[in-house]
Amino acid sequence: MSGERDDYVRRVRYQLPPGPAWLENRAEAIRDRDGRLMYVRGTSQDVTEQELARQSVAASRDFLQATLDSLAASIAVLDETGTIVMTNRPWVDFAAANDGALADLGENYLKVCDRAAGDQFADRAAAGLRGLLLDPEAEFRMEYPWPGPGAERFFVMRASHFTGPGAARLVVSHQDVTTRRQAQDEVVSQARRLEEAGDYLRAITNSMGEGLFATDIEGRVTYMNEAAEQLLGWSQHDAQGQVMHDLVHNRRPDGSYFPIDECPIAATRYGDTVRVQDDTFIHQDGHQIPVAYTASPFRTDHGAQGCVVAFTDISERKAREQALLRDAETLSWIGRIQTTLAEDRFLLYAQPIIDIGTMQVVQHELLLRVREPDGTIIGPGRYLQIAEQYGLIDDIDRWVIRHAMTIAATGLPVQINISARSVVDPTMHDQIERWIQQHHADPRLIVFEITETALMVDETGARRFAQRLHDLGCKLALDDFGTGYGSFSHLKQLPIDSLKIDIEFVRDLAVSSASRLVVEAVVALAHGLNVQTVAEGVEDAETLAMLHELGVECAQGYHLGRPQPLSLIDGERRPLAA
Ligand code: C2E
Ligand code: MG
Ligand code: MG
Which fold has domain 210-314? Predict the structure, then answer.
């Protein structure tokens, strides 16, 4: 103190029980008027509390500083005037690297912003910070570009209000978001590319005639092209997210349900492409669509998995195939009819005709059958039509008539069907006359069933045939009455003995008043012409009782006796059912 200094202060740490203590020792020089040192005044004060508080403030400030320094963003703390009271290391480094870009400690940040007035981002920053100082509830965020030495960089500036003891009022941060923005841009452009790719895909797949849909790994529909929408009756919107299997493939053609594991499309789950030539999808309205399809599993680079199914409606192909099969069968029948005749494999079944009043069998209708080489018996539904179409019916009719003669020759009454073509064949009645004489058959035991079709083909020819047979003593029945020509006018010109009421009006007689009216009318007409009525296709007792009540004389049908084979006994053919 002898020198120039007049005072001396020293804080001393003592290690005292129970802990450290600080004393502030102060020495003060007391001088006379001439400046000579008179004496030194010393004081000693316990400043332990003060020292501990100071240390803790310093420690928390250091802690705050270290924390701020560890952040990537550049951060500054401003007081209420905008003066920077604290910065972190990134702030300092950035300011150093970008001359004048940020303000230094002690500078007024608002003024720094004002210096760059005119720059839209600097203006916004200044306005934002001022706004925050006025309104503590406000928030400020701004993204701005920064022309770096290399590529342009992007920053986000944030500022928020700080309320607490001390001078700090605002915390300002600048964060480099270039990488995040690039990643975002990448995602956006990828999405745009995907969308474009989606548009292309849609355009391409919509131009295909094939139906196409895609599913995810769970089998849920993710995509459908227009053809698939049309063929399946589902809109992509409604189908999206639904399990494809439930939509189109849950039933077999016979209507039974497909267990999902048996569904061929489900097999694509195990990494197989499936090709199916002939299958059925179910339309939204429930009808079945014959399809051929290929189902392929896929896995994209991004890990999306699923299955793409391309399918075509093969209805037309199937119809063509079926038509071809039918044609082939038709053609095969042309040859088969000839071999059946040659190999004598046609045969006649007999079905009893009953007098409803007495319940006695009064007649048998002979019905044509084919015995296949394997023993199967085939009814005439298919081959008679073909025989008529391809001119083979004459041979069949002649075969039937000759066999009927041999049966009639044994004394059994028979009723046979004869095609329109034979009815109008001018040589036919002479032929029949010769066979009757040849077989010594009683013509009165033979009933010829003709249909109205013969009258349509050649009315004069049909009338001549009927008259000649009538003159010979044979009987005539008009078969399938009510389904054909529909004109009764010629009935009285034909020597008809009976009218066979078609099964169509008999089948539902018990429930249909229309059928009842038809039967009533036919009975009235027949009685007016003195003609008998025979009801075809009687399948139950109720119908039989009604027919009796309506005045129908005879009946034929499964209820009374099915067509049965004629068996050969001692060279004679007799119906078993008689
Ligand atoms: P159609 O002359 O009207 O013969 C009656 C048909 O009805 C027969 O069929 C007979 O089996 C069937 N039928 C009899 N009762 C019932 C019944 O209760 N319910 C049902 N649902 N059906 C019954 P099929 O034998 O198949 O003969 C069909 C047609 O073929 C015959 O109709 C006839 O037009 C023709 N046809 C049969 N045999 C000959 C033949 O030898 N020559 C000619 N040219 N045509 C024949
Ligand atoms: Mg008949
Ligand atoms: Mg009939």
Answer: Beta-Lactamase (3.30.450)
